[in-house]
Structure formats: structure tokens, C-alpha cells
Amino acid sequence: GDSVTQMEGPVTLSEEAFLTINCTYTATGYPSLFWYVQYPGEGLQLLLKATKADDKGSNKGFEATYRKETTSFHLEKGSVQVSDSAVYFCALSRRGGSNYKLTFGKGTLLTVNP
Amino acid sequence: GAVVSQHPSRVICKSGTSVKIECRSLDFQATTMFWYRQFPKQSLMLMATSNEGSKATYEQGVEKDKFLINHASLTLSTLTVTSAHPEDSSFYICSARDPRGTGELFFGEGSRLTVL
Asked: Residue A70 and residue A77: Cα distance in Å, rounded?
């Protein structure tokens, strides 16, 4: 079955540090890939997505590239801010019949200190 | 973008009582909504798929008699936790699929249930 494996946290960085959160997946076919972010006390929000190989999703300074050869979708940001502190979830969506099924990784807690 | 709203955001109840959580799609019709449960420091666990006008589809291990799901209209799904116990305390999140067919999910703000 489909699965998503992401880097276990927690990750603690200083402001302006470089961020990488690794994510790899297992799925048949060509899934769409997502990064969702969950700020404290809130629901999940879509951060960025990529729907086909070599696509790069980007938003709010975050980037991730869909690498089919390595089945990866690592999240990166060149300079993190305190406001980026949140839990980040990698996910994939694959169409099964008439429905899309979303599979999440376990989430990575990021804390950015001033 | 599409908005999904949940209510209440926080609820505290006594053990043995029932609690209802609402999930609404505010600017689009959602024939299918999903209910997730999130334990502290863990990922989201899909509990059930709510289908408008028909019975919900529950994931393996989820008690359908305990977690009653009703999807009576194209914009509203409700989750009722019946005879709640402290171990039901959790963060419950609903979501609806992007009506444009991208595979993306739009999530509600979540409802934190505390059972005393």
C-alpha cells in the first residue's frame, strides 16, 4: 500500500538557519505530493504541492521538488523565521477508482528560536 | 480558495455524555468529507469517509456505533462521539476534497475534545 516516511522530529533551529525536512514515499503510479503545515492549535493548511515528476512546489519561501527517481519530496527553506514554528506533514494523493486517497506522514515538529 | 469550517473548536464534556462536531463547506458543495483523528505528537488517522445521502465508510478499527457520522446535506457533515470516555479525548479534524479534482484536501480548523 501507499506510505509516506518523513524525518522524525523534533527539529530545533535558530532564526535564519537553513531547513530541510526529508520525505520519501511508496506508491504505485504517479501520485500527487503535498506538504501541509499545522500551526499550534489550528487545522492543517496546504503549504505547497507538486503533481508530476520534476515539478517544484513553492510557497512562503518553502520549496520541494518531486523526484520520482528517488521517490522523494524534501521540504527546504533557506532562512527560517520564528513564525515557521509548526508541524509539517508530507502527504501523497493517489486516485483509486473515482476517489482520491490522501496518505500522511507522521509529521515533523519544527521549532525556530529567535 | 475553498473553506471548510468546524464547530466547536474546543469542547469539554463529562464521561458518558455525547458530543457533536459539525463540519461545513462554506463556498462549495462536498459530496464527500473525511474525518481524521490526531493524537498528540502523531499523524492524522483517517477515521471515516462521510458520503452525502448514504452511510459513512469507516476505517478498520473505528467503532461505527461510537463515532456516528451523518452527512445530511452537501455542505454539512457531523461527527457524534457517543458515550464519550477520557480515551476519546483528541483533536478531530474534518476535510473535504477540492471540488476542482486536484486531489488536494481542504481542512477544517479542528475540534479539540476533552472528556473528563
From this structure: 20
